[in-house]
Amino acid sequence: MGAQKKGGAAARVSEDAEVQSRHRLQAILLADSFATKFRPVTLERPKVLLPIVNVPMIDYTLAWLESAGIEEVFVFCCAHSMQVIEYLEKSEWYSHPNLLVRTIESHKSISAGDALRYMYEQQTETSQIQGDFVLVSGDTVSNMPLADLIQEHRERKKKDEKAIMTMVIKQSKSSPLTHQSRLGTDQLFIAVDPLTKQLLHYEEDKIDHPSGSVCLEKSLLDTNPSVLVCNDMQDCYIDICSPEVLSLFEDNFDYQHLRRHFVKGVLVDDIMGYKIFTHEIHSSYAGRIDNFRSYDTVSKDIIQRWTYPYVPDINFSGNRPLKLGRQGIYKASDVVQSRSADVGASTVIGYGTKIGHGDKIVNSVIGNGCSIGSNVVIEGSYIWNNVTIEDGCEIRNAIVCDGVKIRAGAVLQPGVVLSFNVVVGRDFVVPAYSKVSLLQQPTTEDSDEELEYADSSSGTADHLSGLNLQMESKASELGPDGAGYIWEVCEGAHDEEWKHSVAPIPKDKLSEITQAIDDDDTDDESVVPTSGELKSDADSINTDVNDPNDDYYYFEKEVEGTVLRAVEENIKVDLVTMEINGLRLSFNMESADCAGATFFSMIKLALDTPHNSGSELYKNAASIITKWKDLLGFYAKKIDEQIEVIMKFEEMCQESPKELGPLFTQILHLLYDKDVLQEDAILRWEEEKAGADEADKVYLKQCDTFIQWLKEASEEEDEDDEDEEEEDN
């Protein structure tokens, strides 16, 4: 670089911006989660190389970074570092024309904080990080654009040099019972400035406040006239960072965890005055695979194409694309499947796999080179590569790693995880939530902050080489002809087993939680409700939050996201119905619920589309309904389902009386013209409204002329039918 220009601060800022724009876009990818949630699997293979829908996790992250314009990635390797480095060297990433991948290895780093301190030490010697960078972990699946976000961060930094970090967040309602997101992570409470989006408070439910409530310091309102409090956000763990972030880790050796220590440390530090801001994404996808439940959730999202273009039938990262069929079934071209086998919806079958007679496989992922015998049942499970499953086995909501052999008649109960090369004996039943490995369970469990480090240099290879002798001297825990150890659940970790499992949460657990909530249901005036906007000149919270126990609200928001993405990406109707059907099963909804939520999403999209008058709003709605009438019609086939659509529209008009209210009759007529609504449904709705209060008949009266016309037309048809009957007689 040349000598610095003279001319004062303004000239220096201008030069810094110019230099920043010339720097290549960089990212730091942490190839270690520094956690033990995927044990025993991660004792033998690093988490970032575990397959998700038959593609290693790190490939999703690198493919996204490359497509988002990142030009250089530093992959920080700790646990099983040689496996990660060897994989990358053999992959297409080392020779990719648009992305430079560099690996950095450190065996001493046992936390994210250690990793970033090591990066800072390297930085002082090599100046590898040239400016702002993206910080992610190698278990991130996303399709969000980054260029505008990076530019937004840089523009903010120009105006405020203390703005050192921008966190990506996404709306994601937590379960009112488990206080978990759909990714299995703990409920998150954040407070932000609604105007600047500056992060003011960050709190994880389980760690910071197990009661499910949140307490805010009154001092927040002293300097912030308005504070937005949210309990419906998901932290995507995607950060845009300025170089100062690395130096802060160097200056604070107690910073280990990125959120628990660094973010909260910055928020409470009044001396340095550094600031963190948030960026909320809406239509884009971003999810981190933090535990087995999020593994299951993200896998389903990939299969249902939320992550497009990172889906099984698209070539990315050198993967072999599969063929997409009806009902979301993906198959490799060389799959050998018996005619009597039943492969159901949302299923992926990899290359070289053989499926036997009478098999039933649904909502599952089968890897490459698997051999499945006859009369096998596989539901909601993940079978990795080169697995052998003999006749008559039953596998439900389980994860089966590479090389496993399941002998005839064996049963895997929900939540089971079989690590590499385990053998399940004939007719053996593996208990629910069991974790099984050829490696014996460590005598002491590491905390979730300690390193998953067990490469060949630490003795794992020696342990495996002597395994056969050990198994001969000890009866197998998986039957006489089995091989493997069933790990015991650590004390105090029983709740984690079912909360973080690929299996659905058991009904008895949900009942226990519901009862506990009922028993502890008290009003505490010292605790601030968990959603809404606090204003310094008011004692109340301005919020329009739906009942947190209303599953339909969450379902409706998910359907809205699905419809929005379908419109933006012009996805085929049958694929959209597949996604909505998946949501319907997840939320235990009826077809009428799907009809109402789908119609709501269409009208909401029309409202969100720019318009300057009622006629333009009608054109927006007409365009969407005309194009997607088949989607709505799929769920509104019966009269009751069509009435649900009318009632949903009536409800929306009541909420937006000025915009939607005047269009009620026009849009109702349009739905009739497009054969979405039958006249019987409209007339039934009119009958049901007959006994309602006058205030509830506003929209019924508005369409009185249209309804009278329908009645007259119906009477004329009846008269014509009677005349035809008389003529026949």
Please tell me about this protein's structure.
This protein has 729 residues and is of the alpha/beta class. It is built from 24 helices and 37 strands. Helix 4 crosses helix 8, helix 17 crosses helix 18 and helix 17 packs antiparallel against helix 19. The N terminus is likely disordered. One of its GO terms (molecular function) is translation initiation factor binding. One of its GO terms (cellular component) is eukaryotic translation initiation factor 2B complex. It is found in: Cytoplasm, Cytosol.
| Overall spatial form | globular
Straight-line N-to-C gap: 101 Å
Summarize the biggest pleated sheet: 9 strands, mixed
The number of helical elements comes to 24
| Share in β-strands | 15-25%
**Uncertain runs with pLDDT below 50, 5 residues or more?**
1-21, 207-211, 446-475, 521-530, 536-549
User: In what order do the strands lie side by side in the largest sheet?
Assistant: 15-16-19-22-25-28-31-34-35
Radius of gyration: 29 Å
Give the strand tally.
37
Q: Return the average pLDDT rounded to an integer.
A: 78
Helix content: 25-40%
Question: Any chance you could write out the topology, listing elements then pairs?
Answer:
Blueprint: H1 8-22, E1 26-30, E2 51-52, E3 55-56, H2 57-67, E4 72-77, H3 81-90, E5 100-105, H4 112-126, E6 133-137, E7 140-142, H5 147-159, E8 163-171, E9 188-192, E10 199-204, H6 205-208, H7 219-223, E11 226-230, E12 233-241, H8 244-251, H9 258-268, E13 275-281, E14 286-288, H10 292-303, E15 323-324, E16 329-331, E17 336-337, E18 342-343, E19 347-349, E20 354-355, E21 360-362, E22 365-366, E23 371-372, E24 377-379, E25 382-383, E26 388-389, E27 394-396, E28 399-400, E29 405-406, E30 411-412, E31 417-418, E32 423-424, E33 429-430, E34 435-437, H11 460-465, H12 467-473, E35 485-487, H13 494-499, H14 507-519, E36 532-535, E37 541-542, H15 551-569, H16 573-587, H17 591-608, H18 614-627, H19 629-635, H20 639-655, H21 664-673, H22 679-688, H23 698-702, H24 704-728
Parallel strand pairs: 1-4, 1-6, 4-5, 8-13, 16-19, 17-20, 18-21, 19-22, 20-23, 21-24, 22-25, 23-26, 24-27, 25-28, 26-29, 27-30, 28-31, 29-32, 30-33, 31-34
Antiparallel strand pairs: 2-3, 6-12, 7-14, 8-12, 9-10, 9-11, 11-36, 15-16, 34-35, 36-37
